[in-house]
Write a structure and sequence with these properties.
Elements lengths: L2 H13 L4 H12 L4 H8 L5 H30 L26 H15 L3 E2 L5 E3 H4 L19 E2 L2 E6 L5 H9 L4 E10 L11 E11 L4 H16 L5 E8 L2 E10 L16 E10 L1 H6 L8 E8 H9 L12 H4 L3
Parallel strand pairs: 1-5
Antiparallel strand pairs: 2-4, 3-4, 5-6, 6-10, 7-8, 8-9, 9-10
This protein binds 3,4-dihydroxyphenylalanine (DAH).
Length: 337
């Protein structure tokens, strides 16, 4: 590197410096860690010994020159003797604070529920929101004449009569059982879709968590135990639970699960409709026909399954009376979580 041409470059560059920012750039360019001075200094050890002294002095002189140039410039910029662009920022104006966001309450409660099941050895699995008609219905033993298969109750994809927006997370049972072998303990969070008219308790899209366990010798009492840990984990140790006989095509026997009303503790109030109980999910022992569809021998394997609506769980837990609040993006609502 030629000292003379660097000097010339410095003289040319310093003329164009007319702001503190430009001066700082100039300083780093020549005096920074990778600047010209550092590079020149680094070449000294490679020079013949008799040249080192003279060269070193030149580099030092250059450094002194740079220092005084920078100092001079600094003074002239501060004194305003240079023509600087007119100040356009009103530094007396209050700043705009960047607010830190947080996870959506639905995401928070999904994480909370999944964590409870993960502690009991469950894995979290997800499935696609666009599903085959087979996985959503037939594979789950939902017969052709079942009302939920109707176009009024399910979003079918135009031009693909065998594809639809899943109406529940249960089809992931079929997917997971086909791609894995027992023992299985799986929870499936995700979005589901139904063409419902929107009101305080209905949306065309909401979230569910499906859960199931399959192995040799899984019993209804296993379902009860697991769900009790879940319900107490979410709603508190002092709730009680009951199983009400019900019907689902994909489980036999089937039951709906209620918890004692968290508002009135079971005495009866407007939230529980004076019943003292709140329904939280559907469940049952996996139907042998579901096992047949996925190639499991129902004489060897048994299992339980359950499914719950997340918004409903969140509404009960936090006392929210309108499901639309979750998706209106009103910060006054969201900030409370
Ligand atoms: N898929 C049901 C629904 O969307 C919920 C459900 C009920 C899931 C019982 C299950 C179950 O796995 O065993 O209404």
């Amino acid at each position: 590197m030629d000292i003379e041409s660097i000097k010339a470059q410095i003289d040319a560059d310093i003329k164009n410096v007319n702001s503190f920012q430009a001066l700082e750039d100039f300083r780093t360019r020549y005096m920074g860690r990778k600047g010209a001075i550092a590079q020149l200094t680094a070449t000294i050890p490679a020079l013949p010994p008799q040249e080192r002294g003279a060269f070193g002095q030149k580099v030092n002189a250059l450094k002194t020159k740079l220092l005084s140039l920078v100092e001079e410039k600094q003074k002239s910029i501060s004194s305003g003797s240079l023509e600087t662009p007119k100040e356009t920022v009103d530094i007396t104006m209050p700043g705009i604070a960047q607010e830190l966001g947080h996870l959506h309450p639905i995401t928070q409660i999904i994480n909370e529920i999944c964590a409870i099941f993960i502690r009991m050895g469950f894995s979290v699995v997800e499935g696609p929101e666009v599903e085959t008609e087979f996985n959503n219905f037939t594979g789950l033993n939902i017969p052709l004449e079942h009302p939920s298969r109707d176009a009024f109750d399910t979003f079918y994809l135009k031009g693909h009569e065998k594809l639809l927006l899943r109406s529940h997370t249960s089809p992931v049972q079929v997917r997971a059982m086909k791609s894995r072998r027992p023992p299985l303990a799986i929870v499936v969070p995700g979005r589901v879709y139904r063409p419902d008219a929107v009101d305080a308790s209905h949306l065309f899209m909401f979230h569910q968590i499906e859960g199931f366990m399959v192995d040799k010798g899984i019993k209804f009492s296993d379902l009860k135990g697991i769900l009790e840990v879940f319900a107490k984990g979410v709603f508190g140790e002092d709730i009680s639970m009951r199983f009400r006989p019900h019907f689902f095509p994909f489980t036999e026997p089937s039951a709906e699960v209620d918890i004692s009303c968290i508002i009135c503790k079971g005495k009866g109030c407007s939230v529980c409709g004076q019943k003292g109980w709140l329904e939280i999910l559907g469940s049952g022992m996996i139907h042998p026909n579901v096992f047949k569809h996925v190639g499991y021998n129902p004489k060897v394997y048994t299992g339980f399954a359950f499914g719950m609506g997340i918004e409903r769980i969140a509404m009960l837990k936090y006392g929210i009376n309108d499901i639309r609040a979750f998706f209106e993006n009103d910060l006054r609502f969201l900030k409370q979580f």
